[in-house]
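A reminder before we start the practical. When you read a complex entry, don't treat the lines as separate problems. The point of joint prediction is that each chain is placed relative to the others, so the output describes one connected object in space. Small molecules and nucleic acid strands, if listed, are placed in the same frame. In the example below there are two entries. Take a minute to note the order of the lines before looking further.
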Amino acid sequence: MNPQLTPDGRLRHLLTLDGLPRAILTQILDTAESFMDVGEREVKKVPLLRGKSIFNLFFEPSTRTRTTFEIAAKRLSADVVNLNIATSSQTKGEAILDTVDNLSAMHADMFIVRHSQSGAAHFIARHVAPHISVVNAGDGRHAHPTQGLLDMFTIRRYKGDFHNLTVAIVGDVLHSRVARSQIHALTTLGVPEVRVIGPKTLLPTGVEQMGVKVFHNMEDGLRGCDVVIMLRLQNERMKGALLPSAQEYFKFFGLTTEKLALAKPDAIVMHPGPMNRGVEIDSEVADGPQSVILPQVTYGIAVRMAVMALLAGGASA
Amino acid sequence: MHASLPDANSLIAQLADAIAPTLAPDTFIVGIHTGGVWVAERLHALLKCTQPLGTLDISFYRDDFSRIGLHPQVKPSNLPFDLEGRDILLVDDVLHSGRTVRAAMNELFDYGRPASIRLAVLVDRGGHELPIRPDFVGLTIAVPDHQNINLSRLDDGHLTLSLA
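Here is the predicted structure of the whole assembly.
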């Protein structure tokens, strides 16, 4: 049984997009669409989660994800508590489940969890009381489901639907939880061609089994694409002998105007942030007319509102 | 269809006749999804209202959300005007407990502070649970708690009332 779903098939936790049915993904995207206008109102709030307490448990630093979760929860009228655990009790040696138990004793209704260890959110979800929901906000190399969903939302907003698209994911797929979530979502939603582009050292072995086409040459991979998703190249990869240098990486796998011209003329460029300008993406592209990188951030709020509303609704039945 | 229920379209026409003499020209008409929007669309046309029609989906304001969750098909609210200081005619198909109207008023106030809100309903079926009464009503009928009165729209756009 999928631990993310209730016996009657509703969302119980959001831990990974792997194995979530298309109907649930579509329901989240549709719900997010209806939350889009809340940010435009005089009062940017709806009272859905009034009286609920949401704890942002960030065992690993994050600015954008934590902030957008916080804004999303506040727009739903929830009370939000941010804990940067890297700087609090974990350094005193408190076990993760003790932290969770203590916060549950403070009447938490939902945990948003970011952790450097894959599986941390699953671990917490198995442990919490039945009325508490867990949202994975990124665990190790495993999954980042709300990022994957906001990327799907962005694609749907710009391209209408998923059925005729060619989508390329470019860069460090090996270390990317974002890429894994994107690939699961794109294939579930029926994108006919998903490509991954990167040097052999940065693509996981057997990635073809996820239903993607592999390219080691960026020019070949970009040809005819509707959507180009760039991944962040973490600087620490340079040290581990996976790559010679940032300059050389940019030469082969950095997205420039010239390379982007190989994709379809109306192709959109996405990036989960934070960007390394001049490493995986040229500023001219990042700030250019085909970039939808800032809309992605805005959409992230509506998508996270949708996830939290669907999780919290009916939970106390 | 219940034989004794009047025709929805003639009820809407009567409702429009009752509203017309009191309607300031810059009033905004706002329908509540889904049935209220159908009635509001008709009233908007019959009253020759020149302002854009507003629609509200009150799913995010329901007071039973924590028990039953989000409605499976939430439609976006669409208020293509600034309602600050304006007169609003709020339209719904059936007034029952009054909770939908309460939620709609809460939502309207999140867009601004209207000068006034008046309520027009096609049917007031009784069973009120809140101090909310219509300013304009097409049909007042006492419907027992175990029954529902519904407005539905046929493919040709024809509206019908039914009791189930």
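Discuss with your neighbour: Chain B has four helices and seven strands. What might explain this?
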